[in-house]
Amino acid sequence: MAKRIKISGLLALISGLVSFAWLIYNYFAFEFIRPRTLKFAELGPGEVLALFIWIGFLIAFLFHLIALFTIIFQFQYFKKVNFFRILTLLTGVISFILLINDWGVLGDIGKEYQLNISTAGEWKVLYYSLLPHGLFHLLMFGLLYQLFRDLPHQPATEPVLKDEIIFIIAQYVGILCGLIGMGFTVLIFIKNVPVTLLKLLIPFYGSFIIFPYGLIAFYWLLIKRTEKPRDWYDEKQWQDVTKAALTTLILSIPGMSLIFFLNYLALHGPASIMWFPFYLFLVLFLFSSSTLYFSKKS
Amino acid sequence: MKLGNHLRRCRFDHDEISQQALANAVGVTRLTIHSIEKGKFVPSTLLALKLARFFGKTVEEIFYIIDEA
Predict the structure, then answer these.
(1) Structural domain count, chain B
(2) Which chain A residues touch B29 with a CB distance below 8 Å?
(3) Per-residue model confidence as pLDDT tens digits over B20-30
């Protein structure tokens, strides 16, 4: 475990430094390209600058993946769910989702610029999302500093046969992904996005919003692959998830009723598509938050 | 009625065995042992028997009923 965490920490540091340099580069590239796209002028050297923005996405994406795994390994190794690690993890999830959003927004800017449509709103989104990206990079550097500082002094840790750390952090990520997903679906519903566009937007953004939770669930399943399903949780965890499932069922009924009501009013309106992501993220939020509640309470 | 226990004392008498080591021995998480010790979680009969066997005691020597007025 110590070797694995060292390697992933080192990879996170290298990719993080490159990714951070890319963020700074992005700011200056945006400053160069934005005025030209707003005036629908020729981009000139901006074409080359834009190319590096696209290439940089790959590195940033890689950094986020490595960083998220490094945080999970760190939780497992130090066996402590503290505020700083949770904050870094949750900021990382937000930054990851925004990264995918930026990618979509940049694509939109490219298309709308060619069609002479104003892209002022899209640029605002890009500038704002630089902040959470930057914050996540800084927090991650802080976490890596802590990691390399504490790792040599960490006494040999007792083995853990039944994991509880992944179980707990999966709930934190589930709460955040659920909230972002619900916020996203409600926002799209309010904005009255045409149904044809929703068919494209929902699978794309929905998959990326749920991706961090899926990543942790996948890692958890990987750990549990040799165990029988009945051994996946211990008896207290089974009790917690059972109570959480009942709570989710009861609390999701108003949400389901709302979806039914909206669908009933306009059968072929946006609710005919939006019901699924809304319900999925609502259930994810309710289940994760109630599991965390019962787990901490008892 | 509530369930009380001497788990903390048993661990102390058993060379101050850690919650994690005890959890590993009986196949649960550390948090579950912590919750039992605090009286917040009532273990199943099987887990109570496993704990008793681990400490070489009877279930009644570890767990007891607290009558509430």
Answers:
(1) 1
(2) 162-164, 167, 234, 236-237
(3) 999 999 999 99
